[in-house]
Amino acid sequence: MNAGIVGSTGYGGIELYRLLANHPYTEKCIMYTSSQQGGAYSEVYPHVSDLMDDPLRDVEEAEGIDTMFIAAPPGVSAELTPLLSKKGIRVIDLSGDLRLKKSGEYEKWYGRTAAPEEMTEAAVYGLSEINREKIRNADILSNPGCYPTASLLGLAPLLKHQQADTGSIIIDAKSGVSGAGRKAGLGTHYSELNENLKVYKPGEHQHTPEIEQQLSEWAAGPVTISFTPHLVPMTRGILTTMYVQLNEPVSTESLLDSYRTFYENDPFVRIRKPGNYPQTKEVTGSNFCDIGLKVDERTGRAVIAAVIDNLMKGAAGQAVQNYNLMNGWDERTGLKFVPMYP
Ligand SMILES: NC(=O)C1=CN([C@@H]2O[C@H](COP(=O)(O)OP(=O)(O)OC[C@H]3O[C@@H](n4cnc5c(N)ncnc54)[C@H](OP(=O)(O)O)[C@@H]3O)[C@@H](O)[C@H]2O)C=CC1
Ligand SMILES: CC(=O)N[C@@H](CCC(=O)OP(=O)(O)O)C(=O)O
Predict the structure, then answer these.
(1) Which of 215, 246, 304, 313 qualifies as a cystine partner to 293, CB 3.0-4.6 A?
(2) Does the beta carbon of 126 sit less than 6 angstroms from any atom of ligand 1?
């Protein structure tokens, strides 16, 4: 099986290379660029010297590829996916281009022209644990956003079991700076970021409709959330802390039991014990999503904490998990990493 990476020079691209280089069923990995054709990949990333010195190529020349991973800014996949599909190449898109199904939503939140409707319709939303059966048959896979992955995995059991007051959901999210990509601007300059913490895009972040779309499907009715992301001075990691009013009283122990049952066949979701809340460092470099929670009996709210590595379960890791499912392989193939610690 041969794979290609569009956007290979970015953070999502280099993380995909790290995974595919060790993937037993991927013979070749071809690296594409829109700006640095001809140069060796190891010139962009010297840490892969002697491992990947192949020249970077132009995607227009793509051939002999079975699956193309697209890890490029918004708008690229909307244009490229129809062309690749026509060539019979399966697409796994890490951007937000194919995630929003409702007409007008992409234009509203991303401020640009949406992909052709038939592409968005054909794209399967790749939240692996929830959509496994559809993913197995996908030719176009839309990989979830980093914040939506942590938020949705943390909320799925409550929503699917109709235990949540769906008008009450607050998601307070924090991300490491690699989430902004390699070419991020001034806001990610060391001296702006170091010893600092800030809110950005409260109520207007592009992942809001993606989370609402999935929650509404589970709740079988419209769900509106309050979603506030924060930028944290660390390289990798996302922590989402979610506050949900419960419909009926339930104990922490019993809610944790129902989460454990819900995810019992999902090797990458780990549910913590009562009183144990996951930390971003505990999943770094791995494809795990770790979840801890407490029912605050005083307020009747569940407080749920979910952590992921934004470049792994939030991007390249989940993309490879979906690649495995699409090819009928064990979904853990090439992903059996113990998290890096400390
Ligand atoms: N970073 C993260 O944690 C996550 C990122 N994502 C999404 O994945 C995508 C990639 O993000 P990330 O790797 O962080 O971003 P980066 O900015 O690090 O890299 C993006 C890469 O895209 C390439 N690119 C730019 N313009 C074009 C173009 N017109 N055509 C083709 N390629 C282009 C660039 O490489 P070159 O100039 O060589 O072509 C660049 O290296 C984004 O859509 C992002 O939103 C999703 C989940 C998490
Ligand atoms: C820290 C940080 O800046 N994170 C990025 C995540 C972007 C992303 O993943 O964008 P799409 O999934 O929409 O392509 C952001 O908040 O915009």
Answers:
(1) 304
(2) no
